[in-house]
Design goal:
Residues 203-267 form the tRNA-specific 2-thiouridylase MnmA-like central domain. By secondary structure, this protein is α+β, with helices and mostly antiparallel strands. Helices cover 23% and strands 27% of the residues.
C-alpha cells in the first residue's frame, strides 16, 4: 500500500473478494528528507500514514517493512551506475523488478502468503496452453503493463492486480470516495521518488562529481563543452553550451553519451531516428516464444506512455557470442537511449522486455 488511491482500492477489492489481506507499506529510505513529498512521492512518511488510514477503514492488519538497504543497492545505486555508464535508466522498472516483485514477494511467500496484490492497471490471464500471461489493462490510457514487463513466469504466478478490468482512474476515485477512503482525490505520484527536489542533474553531480569535457558533432569536431557527461540524455536539446552553430542553423540534439571519453555527441533531430535496438539483458513474461532464434512479429514500446510500434524481433549471438535480443521496428523509433527498457507485446500480451544496450541510427553519418 503506497498511500495512493490505486493500492487502497486494490486492497478493498481483495478484501471484498474474500481474501485474507494484510496491508504492507515499504519504507525505502531511513532519511525521509531524501524522498519526494506531497503529491510527488510514493513512499514517504505521509504516504505511510495515508496507507495506514486506508487499512484502518478496511479493517485489515497494516505493517511497514524496511527495505531501505535493498532499495539503495538495487535501485538508487543502480541508477547512479547506469548514468555513470552513459545510459538512461528507468528506476521505476528496477523498483518493480527488484523490490516489489523480488524482495517483497520473497518475504511474503516466506511468511506464507500466496500473492502480492498491487494497484497496477494490468491483467494476469491464462494463455492457450494454460500458462499465465501478462496483458494490458482494459483502460488503455492508464495501462501500466509496460512497467511490469520485468516480471517472470514465477512472479506472475504470485501477482494479483484487482484494478485490471477497471475502465478508468476516475471510476477508481469514485469507488474510493464511496468506501470512505481519504485518498480518493490524492494526486498521482511522480518519479523519481529518491530525488527530493526533482533536480536530477544536480543530484547526479553531487553523487558522481563534475568533469569538463567536449561536446562534438557526428564527425568528431568539437562544438562546445560540458561539466559532466552524466547530465545529458539522448534527445536532449536544451542546456548545451555550443560555441559553434550548425552549418544549416538548425538546433542540435544529444545523440550519444560517451562516459569513458567524457564526451557528448550532438547532431540533427533526424539522426535521433532509430532503426534497430538490441540488448543482452532480456527476460520473458511467462512462456518464451517457441523459437526465439527465428524472427517473429511483435510490437515494441520504449516508454511507459509511448505508442507501441510494429516490429520484428529475434534472439541472435552478439559480438561476444552471448545471446542478444534484436528488435527492428517497421518505422524508426525516436530518441532511444541505451539503458531504457523496451517491452515487447504480441497483441495485448506482454511477451518480454530487455534493457537497451545499443542502437543503430536510421540516418548514417554525413547524411
Amino acid at each position: 500500500m503506497s498511500g495512493g488511491v490505486d493500492s487502497a482500492v486494490a486492497a478493498a477489492r481483495a478484501v471484498e473478494a474474500g481474501h485474507e489481506v494484510v496491508g504492507v507499506h515499504l519504507a525505502l529510505s531511513r532519511m525521509p528528507g531524501t524522498l519526494r513529498t506531497g503529491s510527488r512521492g510514493c513512499c514517504t512518511i505521509e504516504d505511510s500514514m495515508d496507507a495506514q488510514r486506508a487499512a484502518n477503514v478496511l479493517g485489515i492488519p497494516y505493517y511497514v517493512w524496511d527495505f531501505s538497504e535493498r532499495f539503495k543497492a538495487d535501485v538508487v545505486d543502480d541508477f547512479i551506475s547506469e548514468y555513470s555508464a552513459g545510459r538512461t535508466p528507468n528506476p521505476c522498472m528496477r523498483c518493480n523488478e527488484r523490490i516489489k516483485f523480488a524482495a517483497l514477494l520473497e518475504k511474503a511467500l516466506a511468511l506464507g502468503f500466496d500473492a502480492v496484490a498491487t494497484g497496477h492497471y494490468a491483467k494476469v490471464l491464462p494463455g492457450a496452453s494454460g500458462a499465465l500471461e501478462l496483458h494490458r489493462a482494459s483502460a488503455e490510457a492508464k495501462d501500466q503493463s509496460y512497467v511490469l514487463g520485468v516480471l517472470t513466469a514465477e512472479q506472475l504466478a504470485h501477482a494479483y492486480f484487482p484494478l485490471g478490468d477497471t475502465p478508468s482512474k476516475a471510476l477508481v476515485r469514485e469507488e474510493a470516495a464511496r468506501r470512505g477512503l481519504s485518498v480518493a482525490q490524492k494526486p498521482d505520484s511522480y518519479d523519481i521518488c529518491f530525488i527530493p527536489d526533482g533536480d536530477t542533474k544536480g543530484w547526479l553531480a553531487d553523487k558522481v562529481g563534475t568533469a569538463t569535457g567536449d561536446i562534438v558533432d557526428r564527425t568528431g569536431a568539437v562544438v562546445g563543452s560540458h561539466e559532466g557527461a552524466h547530465a545529458f540524455t539522448v534527445g536532449q536539446r536544451r542546456g548545451m553550451r555550443l560555441g559553434t552553430p550548425a552549418a544549416d542553423g538548425k538546433p542540435r540534439f544529444v545523440l550519444e553519451v560517451r562516459p569513458k571519453e567524457n564526451t557528448v555527441v550532438v547532431g540533427p533531430k533526424e539522426a535521433l531516428a532509430t532503426a534497430l535496438i538490441a540488448g543482452s539483458r532480456y527476460t520473458w513474461a511467462g512462456l518464451a516464444p517457441a523459437d526465439p532464434a527465428s524472427e517473429f512479429a511483435c510490437e515494441v514500446q520504449i516508454r511507459a506512455h509511448a505508442d507501441p510500434v510494429p516490429a520484428l524481433a529475434q534472439v541472435v549471438p552478439d559480438a561476444a557470442g552471448a545471446a542478444e535480443l534484436v528488435v527492428t521496428p517497421e518505422i524508426p523509433l525516436d530518441g532511444v537511449a541505451p539503458g531504457q527498457t523496451a517491452v515487447i507485446y504480441v497483441g495485448t500480451r506482454v511477451l518480454g522486455q530487455f534493457t537497451i544496450d545499443r542502437t543503430v541510427s536510421a540516418v548514417p553519418v554525413g547524411v
